[in-house]
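Support request, please re-run this one:
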Amino acid sequence: MAEEIRVVIEKNGTLFLEVSGKGGPQCLQVTEALEQEMGKVVERRRTNDFYKQGRIALTNKTRTILKSA
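Re-run finished. Output below.
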């Protein structure tokens, strides 16, 4: 899924940002610059995507074989 930032401007001037394609706190990094330009953040609602954990593949290049006594 591609990263997308949706900006909604209501009739009263209230702005909403919605991020898709990023999970966890990465979405906060994506919107940081926009938030600074738009003004004070009044409320932050986290979606289910925020709470999804990313997967990281780890490879152990130095394998040590443990021998039992």
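The radius of gyration is 20 Å. Residues 1-9+18-40+48-53 form one domain.
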